[in-house]
Amino acid sequence: MRWVEVERPETKRISRATATKVLRAAVATAPDPLPLLERLGAALMDEGGHREAIAAFDARAKADPARFTSWGRLAQCHNEIGEPATALAICDRAGGHGARVARARGAALEALGRRDEALESYRRAFGEDETDAIALDAVLRLLCRAADAAPLLAFCDALPATARFDVQKRAFRALACSRLGRREEASALIDPERHVMSFRFDPACESGGVDAFNARLAGWLLANTGATPTPRRDCVHDYALRHMRAPLLQELRAFFRQSFDAYIAALPALGLDRLMPPPVAGDIADGATFLRNEARNGEHVHRGRYLTGVYYVHTPQAIRTNVERRGRLAVGRCHETAGGHEPVWGARYIAPEPGMFVVFPAHMFHDVVPTRCSEWRIAIVADVEPAPIGGRELPMRYVQERA
């Protein structure tokens, strides 16, 4: 595979809290604050301030309903605070079948136990907007939990044959095959024992060894990333890392490329060469991940990617010395996603050892066991992202939105 580097110029960022503060001030001083109220509501929603967001959206909707466009966001806010009946009424009021409204309607119906109707709404949302990854995930989730797995398999097979959907097709096809008793097909796609490889980072001699390198990298990450407030304050993902070009990161990225090349060379031995042929060219897409206390990523795959790697920067001593699975990477685990079904491939729990880079297919389900300690567990997640060739667009970005 040829490595390229997609142009991602470094940009100055402001935190969500700062953006919200600026919008509040603008609403207070603008001659016509109504359009700004929708932007303020969206910013508050991103921060997890759903009740305040509702107030901002409501003010705009009541004053000028004809030009209010955020019905789906308003309905979703009510879903988030446990008011699905209100959310459903808002969707009915909105009329039409916009993708965001359809998705919010699906969430409300699902919360109300009307699963068949919810699935229909999620399907409508995805049908109207194929980039709506949340709607697609919802369709797959509900199909996973249906009594018959055949519709899930049929849906996976019917997804467009583009790189955008490769990960979902492989992951959920494996689940469908597992549920249908097609063990060999399922294990050929997902095998946590066979399809996971580990690589050890050996930094340049002047770095003073991997421990010294990681200590400097942890300090740099804590100073430059992870400060943006999120609704889950003990689980922070900073995807702006990919726009940064610090020397420590560049040295590490060279190691990531070498490791990914070694994994790709091993595809025939892993039995994956025909199931997931490598892209013609690829780029590294990385982000910093901070976890502590009871936080976890949630079971997920990395849509739009090819390979996923996790590099461990800092592991709290409390995790290193415990005999439990705290802080471990749970590769293959998808019990919740599958509605209680235990897939034929099982799960593998990997201890987060600093300096280790764990690589596996991007379609392999994974999660992190909560650390149950107040110190940050710091890792860098690096993916192989198929690069644009001949003017084609990049595939769908990985967006971590797990409740």
TrEMBL record:
<dbReference type="InterPro" id="IPR012668">
    <property type="entry name" value="CHP02466"/>
</dbReference>
<keyword id="KW-0802">TPR repeat</keyword>
<protein>
    <recommendedName>
        <fullName>Tetratricopeptide repeat protein</fullName>
    </recommendedName>
</protein>
<dbReference type="InterPro" id="IPR011990">
    <property type="entry name" value="TPR-like_helical_dom_sf"/>
</dbReference>
<dbReference type="InterPro" id="IPR019734">
    <property type="entry name" value="TPR_rpt"/>
</dbReference>
<feature type="repeat" description="TPR">
    <location>
        <begin position="99"/>
        <end position="132"/>
    </location>
</feature>
<dbReference type="Pfam" id="PF13759">
    <property type="entry name" value="2OG-FeII_Oxy_5"/>
</dbReference>
